[in-house]
Amino acid sequence: MEILLEIYMYIKNEIKKFIMVSKARKKFKELSNIDRNIKKLYEENQNYFEADEKVVAKVMEVDKYSDTSMKELSEFLEYCSEQNK
Prior knowledge:
The chain has helices at 2-44, 46-61, 67-83. It is mainly α.
């Protein structure tokens, strides 16, 4: 009787492990799909990110008290806006 109980407990524990592993694999598969989708979105929109870095650099170097600098910045932003359309 004890042997049957031990066999039953062993089988029960192995089934639990198998179910937990299969659930974990399913979660990892879902996470890898999300990761792939994020990478794909980044690649599709990479030119916008690069444009944003250029715009930030340009804005940071402009003297806000100089009218000519502000005009140049305005023209640059309009140019970037037209390129991204």
